[in-house]
C-alpha cells in the first residue's frame, strides 16, 4: 500500500459497547489527528467518531486494526470526499451477510445433518474447499428431504442481519440499485427480493421431484466467478462501472466480486475476507456503511 493522504478514519461501535474516551483518543493519536464525535450519524444505535486528514500507510493500518479490535470498534479509512452518490449499485451476499443464517445448514438440520454440512460450509467460507465441490457435497446430503423444510427454515429461522433494513432503505432512497447474489438458493433469494424490494437476485436452484429434494441443483452453480460475472452484468445493465458498486460479503467465495468493486465490505467475515476488504464491519450492523459516506 502506497501512502494515501487526506483520508478520514471513521470509528464506530454499537451504543451498548460504551467505548471509553481514552480508547478513542489513543487511536486518534495513532492516526496523528484530532478526533470529533459525529452527532448526526445516520445509524441511531451506533456511536461514531471521525479523525480527519489522516495519511494512511500499512504500518498505521496494522496498528489501528489491532487497537480497534481490542476496543471492540469498527474502523474504516476512506477518502474524505467519498459520497454515497458516487455509487450506483449495492451488491450483497445473502447467507451470513444480508441474513444471519447459512440456509443450507438449517435445511440440513431438518435431516439431523447440520454438523456435517456446517463443517463443509465453514471450510468453504474460509477458502479451504473449492466452492463447487463444497456445494455439491452439501446438497447431496439433503437428498430425500421434504421440500416443505425450506419454508420452515424461512418461517422459523431466517432473520435479517442487524442494520439490513435501515441500510437498504437509505441506499434505495438515494437511487442505488440493489443486487442479492448468493451461493445459496433461489427459494430464499426470491422471498428476499419481494420482502425487501430488491432489484436483482441470482442464486442456485434446488431440484425438487415429487415434493422432495433430489440432492442436486438445476443448472450452473453460482460460485465466486459467477458472482463476479453477475456484478459485472448488472453494472452493464444499469450503465455503471464495477467501481461504482458497493459489494458486501463474508466468505472466500465473495472475494472475486468484492475485488472489482469501488468499496468492498466484509461483514462479520472470515479472516481471509477481512484482510482483503476495504472495510470490515465486525460490531455494528450493515448500516454502518452509511456512516462512512457523506
Description:
This protein is α/β, with parallel strands linked by helices and 294 residues long. The protein folds into 2 domains: 1-81, Alpha-Beta Plaits (2-Layer Sandwich); 83-294, HAD superfamily/HAD-like (Rossmann fold, 3-Layer(aba) Sandwich), CATH 3.40.50. The protein is built from 11 helices and 11 strands. It has helices at 21-31, 58-71, 103-109, 114-125, 131-140, 148-156, 164-173, 186-196, 224-237, 255-259, 271-274, and strands at 4-14, 35-37, 46-56, 74-79, 89-92, 177-185, 200-209, 212-218, 245-249, 263-267, 279-281. The strands form 2 sheets. Strands 8-7-6-5-9-10-11 form a 7-stranded mixed sheet, sandwiched between helices. Strand 9, helix 10 and strand 10 (263-267) form a beta-alpha-beta unit. The two termini are 25 Å apart. The relative contact order is 0.17.
Write the layout of secondary structure elements.
Layout: E1 4-14, H1 21-31, E2 35-37, E3 46-56, H2 58-71, E4 74-79, E5 89-92, H3 103-109, H4 114-125, H5 131-140, H6 148-156, H7 164-173, E6 177-185, H8 186-196, E7 200-209, E8 212-218, H9 224-237, E9 245-249, H10 255-259, E10 263-267, H11 271-274, E11 279-281
Parallel strand pairs: 5-6, 5-9, 6-7, 9-10, 10-11
Antiparallel strand pairs: 1-3, 1-4, 2-3, 7-8
